[in-house]
C-alpha cells in the first residue's frame, strides 16, 4: 500500500547519480512541487527521463533542474523548449539521447511490462541509429532499443486515495500513466488525497499497486493561478 509522505521526505530519497523519470508535457501534468524540492536539495548528476525538455515561460517545470546544472544526461524526444538544456548539449556538458516520441514512450511501456526490447523502423537513416542496434527482420531494417526504466518515477495526478489509486484529468494524463509502471520507486504528486472508496473504479488511471509514495502538491486552483501568471508574463514580453 502506498505511503503518504511530504515532498521533502520523498525528495530526500533521490541521490546524486540517480535516474529520474518525470511525467508531464511543457508543464501540463508535471509534478511541480517535487521538481522544486529537487532543485532546493541540489541533487546532482541526474539522468533525467522526460518526453521533452521544458521550461515554459522561464518559470517552472524540469527546466529548473537543467538551469541549476543538476542534470548529467537527458533522455527524451526534444530539447528546444529548454534554453539551458540546449546550451548544455551544444557545449557537451549534458549528454542527450534523442528518441522519437513514440519510441520513447514505447520503451518505457516495455520496461513496465517486462518486455525485452522495442523494435521499430522509425529513425532509420537518422542520428537515432546511434542509440540502437540495427537488425534485419523479414527482409526489412529495424532499430532495436532496450526498455527504458528508472530508479525513480515522479508522476502527477489530480487525486489519489489512501491506497495509492490515481485519478487523472484530461491531457494531464500524458506520460504519467506509462511512467508509473517503469520506476523502481514511484512517487505520485497529487492535487488532493481522498478517502478510499471515493474514486470510482472506472475513473482510476493508475492502480495503487504501482505507487509507492503519495505527496500533496499544489491544489488545482493554485496550479491554475501559477499557469495564469506565467501566461500573463509571456504575453507582456511580446
Automatic annotation (TrEMBL):
Instruction: Tell me the InterPro entries matching this sequence.
Output: 3-oxoacid_CoA-transf_A (IPR012792), CoA_trans_fam_I (IPR004165), CoA_transf_BS (IPR004163), NagB/RpiA_transferase-like (IPR037171)
What the entry lists under Pfam families is as follows:
CoA_trans
**Would the keyword Plastid be found if you checked this record's keyword annotation?**
no
Listed GO molecular functions?
transferase activity
Q: Which family would the database say this protein is a member of?
A: Belongs to the 3-oxoacid CoA-transferase subunit A family.
- PROSITE patterns, sorted: COA_TRANSF_1
| Superkingdom per UniProt | Bacteria
Q: Which UniProt keywords apply?
A: Transferase
What is the scientific name of the source organism? Fusibacter ferrireducens
Keyword Nucleotide-binding among record annotations = no
Q: What is this protein called?
A: CoA transferase subunit A
NCBIfam families on file: pcaI_scoA_fam (TIGR02429)
